[in-house]
Specification:
single chain, Phosphatidylinositol Phosphate Kinase II Beta, Phosphatidylinositol Phosphate Kinase Iibeta, Chain: A, domain 2, seven-stranded antiparallel sheet, seven-stranded mixed sheet, 19% strand
């Protein structure tokens, strides 16, 4: 496959493009068909060569250097990412500038359909974190072989040296992997981590994320990720920055990392690289069916990944507003309780439920902030089990109620401390959900 790809790209470099590359606003013009035959009987179709030449020109990438990077030396990779669900194959240029990825036919057509608006958006938002698409091809590796769709993108981690790498979606469904050196981690692994950066950088970053995700909403795109790498400077003092990033936010940012689960609360200095990737998945009929099924099953326990684009974008933004903060901000000062729970995608303990605290004994009427706990199943039990995500149990906390034995676990704060609730991380829901 690699040989066929590089042979095809060598031919693709000859696809007709105007000497003076067209502006991004002219990409909508009818593409010039470009078909090439490989020596082994295979074929390559170059999709909209003028349009992608314009995007490369917009990024300051020379036509000849682009194809030289992809063909001069053997491509690296060629495998399926362990953390991915799509089965896509990945390669990278040996100089680290570009990434090649196989995509589904519908994803390729989606890219070609929004190319004009995508180009205009990048012209108007040069600091965008969106992946830059620089080429798209349909390749038959040999005579009679199945056609494979391939896109070429910038490497959002170009120039990075890192100790940890995360693929983040702001959701909890299937977002944990075993933490092995060199493995791409996910949202639940990222749970204890908060990144701090300069206030101006933080403001710009969140403004760009807002704009980028709103653009993807308009395209009806969801299921994208933020790739984030962290280089700890106490482990490697060679701060890695790219000298000519495509965006002020790509190429490396200075910051600190705070861990909630470590004894040492001192922040660690770092360089982090970020970029928005996997931006070709639309909320089609299959995704809608998946959303319906998951909403009635695992959505009781996870933030599911298959949600409409508007909801996906809002959740995505909220998540990173809690995970990347200005140097002067703390998570506690920035968040209210509801936002904190949305920002920490966790697995709910099936046997643990949250319930509101009872009203103070001196109150004649229930307080809005501390409502009286509803009578569970008319059993005269005032209380509910406490998730691990809830505040620590203390005097005045509700008693634990076992929903299967219908017994109260403890009669006092002392008893409760003696019998802590066991289970995984949990995002709480009301006791009344027991019968839902």
């Amino acid at each position: 496959m690699r040989v066929a790809i590089q042979s095809g790209l060598t031919l693709a470099s000859r696809a007709p493009v105007e000497a003076a590359h067209p502006t991004a606003y002219q990409i909508k013009a009818k593409p010039v068909p470009s078909e090439f035959k490989l020596s082994n009987g295979g074929s390559l179709h170059v999709c909209n060569p003028r349009g992608f030449a314009a995007l490369r020109d917009l990024a300051g990438i020379d036509h000849d250097s682009f194809f030289a990077s992809l063909t001069r030396e053997d491509l690296l990779g060629g495998g399926i990412q362990e953390s991915g669900k799509s089965g896509a194959m990945f390669w990278s240029s040996r100089d680290g500038r570009f990434v090649l990825k196989t995509v589904a036919e519908e994803e390729l057509q989606k890219l070609l359909s929004f190319l004009p608006s995508y180009a205009r958006y990048l012209m108007e938002h040069p600091d965008s974190l969106l992946t830059r698409y620089f080429g798209a091809y349909q390749l038959a590796p040999s005579r009679g072989a199945t056609v494979v769709c391939i896109v070429v993108m910038n490497n959002v981690l170009e120039g990075a040296r890192y100790h940890e790498l995360y693929d983040l979606k702001g959701t909890s469904e299937d977002r944990w992997v075993d933490e092995v050196d060199g493995k791409c981690l996910k949202d639940t692994n990222f749970g204890p981590v908060t990144i701090h950066c300069a206030a101006e950088t933080n403001e710009t970053l969140h403004a760009v994320l807002q704009s980028d995700t709103q653009f993807l909403q308009r395209l009806h795109v969801m299921d994208y990720s933020l790739i984030l790498s962290i280089q700890y400077l106490d482990k490697d003092m060679s701060g890695a920055f790219h000298p000519k990033p495509l965006s002020r936010l790509m190429g490396g940012l200075k910051g600190t990392v705070q861990f909630d689960n470590r004894r040492s609360k001192e922040p660690e200095s770092c360089i982090f690289h970020i970029g928005l990737v996997d931006t070709l998945t639309t909320y089609d009929f299959k995704k809608q069916i998946a959303h319906t099924l998951k909403s009635n099953t695992i959505a009781h326990f996870y933030d599911i990944d298959t949600v409409p684009p508007d909801e996906y974008a809002e959740r995505f933004r909220s998540y990173f507003q809690c995970k990347i903060l200005a140097e002067t901000e703390t998570l506690e000062s920035f968040l209210n309780v509801d936002t904190l729970k949305r920002a920490e995608p966790n697995l709910t303990d099936l046997l643990s439920f949250d319930s509101p605290l009872p009203a103070p004994a001196s109150s004649a009427t229930p307080s809005k902030s501390m409502p009286v706990v509803e009578n569970l199943l008319d059993l005269d039990v005032i209380g509910g089990a406490t998730c691990l995500s809830s505040p620590p149990i203390g005097p005045g906390s509700p008693m634990n109620f076992d929903p299967f034995s219908f017994e109260v676990v403890g009669n006092s704060a002392k008893d409760l401390h003696a019998q802590p609730v066991q289970g995984g991380y949990g995002s709480s829901f009301a006791s009344s959900d027991l019968l839902a």
